From TrEMBL:
It catalyses: N-succinyl-(2S,6S)-2,6-diaminopimelate + H2O = (2S,6S)-2,6-diaminopimelate + succinate. This is Probable succinyl-diaminopimelate desuccinylase. It comes from Actinoallomurus bryophytorum. InterPro entries: ArgE/DapE, ArgE/DapE_CS, Bact_exopeptidase_dim_dom, Peptidase_M20, Peptidase_M20_dimer, Peptidase_M20A. The keyword Transmembrane helix does not apply. SUPFAM superfamilies: Bacterial exopeptidase dimerisation domain, Zn-dependent exopeptidases. It is an enzyme of class 3 (hydrolase). The keyword Zinc applies. The lineage of its organism: Bacteria, Bacillati, Actinomycetota, Actinomycetes, Streptosporangiales. Pathway: Amino-acid biosynthesis; L-lysine biosynthesis via DAP pathway; LL-2,6-diaminopimelate from (S)-tetrahydrodipicolinate (succinylase route): step 3/3. Belongs to the peptidase M20A family.
């Protein structure tokens, strides 16, 4: 059997940032791995124009001119239940933080840790799934085991949406996201938004004759922080380990076009968490109402209100209600703890398709999207063993 660390380092060194050419390159590499491992391979071009035009498309933020789907199937001997491992291959940009200590895609190993963007989120989990399938190929279970490598998860769920559209299904699914080897049967939602705050441009030397859009954003930002507090009161007990179950954050702010001018517009982009069992429509309405109240309290904004746009990834919340499968994963993980994820994931697309799904994988979610991202190799190996145990029992 191949060393998981070697494969993981190779995959981390492919900088498969969402929308980049390497997002396609890594699918080609993985298709080759699957073929060499004896899997039946389905590697197809995704019809972006057709899928993105659908009313139920889950959103896409990274510009793409092409994207590829990839599934490898280990056929069972017959008569057993099928199991899917669903892992995304796209990663977020690494940024320029000195915390990387060099190349953010180095894949370097220090002791038990393998470093690099995507090592934790979630190429470590992908390698755990591939290692499990490689182990199962030597003594096949009765049911099929499917490995789905998907693109576009970070910015909406393009890959899993295309996978389901192509007709791929299984009796149950594990997403090996970084959970620290805990079992995660539920995930909050997350909606991407854009705010446009109007001001009035003027020369900075005569700033009193203008209206700063930056200044007018401040009461709106305060209102959003207050909304976040209200929305996190009485959160589902599955979120008890988190300080915030449903975070609301502004991730990008742009204002003005000249240093010595009063900024005439501010554009802020962010995400709002959607509570378990809450509809995305209700979450949108709550935010729009909060912004509206902030505008009503300001004479300028009352006449020139902030606009709210919903774009990009639109993640609904979801939970798996199949208690037997959750228990099976927990048992295979040798009694792992359970909690809910405060972020959106492809779990909601798979459960909506009627596939009981949980998240379970190596790595600390606090390291995902962070500088110095890494994954413990011991956890990658333990996750592979747990996924193997699950497949042996579930697919029997």
């Amino acid at each position: 059997m191949n060393d998981p660390a070697t494969l993981l380092a190779e995959l981390v060194r492919i900088p498969s940032v969402g929308g980049s050419p390497e997002e396609t390159l890594i699918q080609e590499r993985l298709a080759g791995w699957m073929s060499a491992a004896g899997l039946e391979v389905d590697h197809w071009p995704i019809d972006l124009d057709e899928l993105t035009g659908r009313p139920d498309f889950p959103g896409m933020e990274a510009p793409r001119t092409r994207a590829w789907g990839l599934v490898g199937r280990l056929p069972g001997t017959g008569g057993g239940r099928s199991l899917m491992f669903n892992a995304h291959v796209d990663v977020v940009p690494p940024g320029s933080s000195p915390a990387w200590g060099g190349d953010p895609f180095s894949g370097r190993v220090e002791g038990d840790r393998l470093y690099g963007r995507g090592s934790c989120d979630m190429k470590g989990g992908l390698v755990a799934a591939l290692t499990a399938v490689e182990e199962l190929a030597g003594d096949r279970p009765r049911g099929d085991v499917v490995v789905a490598c998907v693109v576009g998860e970070e910015d909406g769920g393009l890959g899993t949406y295309a996978l389901l559209d192509r007709g791929w299904r299984a009796d149950a699914c594990v997403i090996p996201e970084p959970t620290g080897l805990a079992v995660v049967p539920a995930a909050a939602g997350a909606l991407t938004f854009r705010l446009r705050v109007p001001g009035l441009s003027a020369h900075a030397a005569r700033r009193a004759s203008g209206v700063s859009a930056v200044e007018k954003f401040l009461p709106v930002f305060t209102a959003l922080r207050e909304l976040e507090t209200r929305r996190n009161t009485g959160a589902d007990p599955l979120f008890a380990r988190w300080d915030l179950a449903y975070p609301l954050e502004i991730g990008m702010v742009r204002a003005g076009d000249w240093a010595s001018s009063v900024p005439g517009e501010l554009v802020a982009e962010g995400r709002i968490g959607v509570a378990l069992d809450e509809s995305p429509e209700r979450a949108r309405r709550a935010m729009e109402e909060a912004v509206g109240r902030a505008c009503d309290a300001d004479p300028w904004l009352a006449r020139h209100p902030v606009t709210v746009e919903w774009w990009g990834g639109q993640f609904a919340p979801a939970r798996t209600t199949d208690a037997a499968f959750v228990a099976a994963m927990t048992d295979a993980a040798q009694g792992a703890e359970q909690w809910a994820a405060p972020y959106g994931s492809d779990l909601r697309l798979l459960t909506a398709a009627g596939i009981p799904t949980v998240q379970y994988g190596p790595g600390d979610v606090d390291l995902a999207h962070a500088p110095g991202e890494h994954v413990p190799l011991s956890q990658v190996r333990e996750a592979a063993r747990a996924l193997t145990r699950l497949a042996v029992r579930h697919c029997a």
